[in-house]
């Protein structure tokens, strides 16, 4: 029992999975999946952290710019680093670039989201008639 207590005591809360973090991949989902997911996370948590490795960094930057240019988000923090991973094919360690961008809601976020929801409802009504 002491071992478990020691193990729990040494767990860093920062290592826990963050509820408002989106880990972006450039192969699994389309770009606007991440844009819409980030909007939803900001509605729920007021901020969202976008994280990516290697080639997916461009996707994170693009998602961030779309949200900023639409007046929905402001950058709170950008962190870059290099992490060491094992090469899947050769098994040797390789360096990978990593980026983490923390975005917060703009003052106009709720207003813009409500207007967008209203527009989509009106569009749905026109298609049904």
Automatic annotation (TrEMBL):
Report a single Gene Ontology molecular function: RNA binding
Q: Cross-referenced Pfam families, in alphabetical order?
A: Alba (PF01918)
**SUPFAM superfamilies, alphabetically?**
AlbA-like
Cellular component terms per the entry's GO annotation: nucleus
The record's annotation in InterPro entries points to: Alba-like_dom_sf, DNA/RNA-bd_Alba-like, UCP030333_Alba
The segment(s) forming the DNA/RNA-binding protein Alba-like domain are: 20-82
Domain of life here?
Answer: Eukaryota
What is the name of this protein?
DNA/RNA-binding protein Alba-like domain-containing protein
């Amino acid at each position: 029992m002491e071992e478990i207590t020691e193990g729990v005591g040494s767990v860093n809360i920062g290592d826990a999975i963050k509820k408002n973090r989106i880990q972006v991949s450039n192969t699994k989902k389309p770009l606007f999946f991440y844009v819409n997911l980030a909007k939803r996370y900001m509605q729920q948590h007021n901020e969202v952290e976008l994280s990516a490795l290697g080639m997916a960094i461009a996707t994170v930057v693009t998602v961030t710019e779309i949200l900023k240019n639409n007046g929905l988000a402001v950058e709170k923090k950008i962190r870059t680093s290099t992490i060491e991973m094992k090469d899947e094919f050769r098994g040797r360690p390789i360096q990978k670039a990593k980026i983490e961008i923390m975005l917060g809601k703009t003052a106009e976020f709720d207003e813009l989201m409500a207007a967008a929801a209203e527009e989509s409802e009106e569009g749905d009504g026109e298609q049904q008639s």
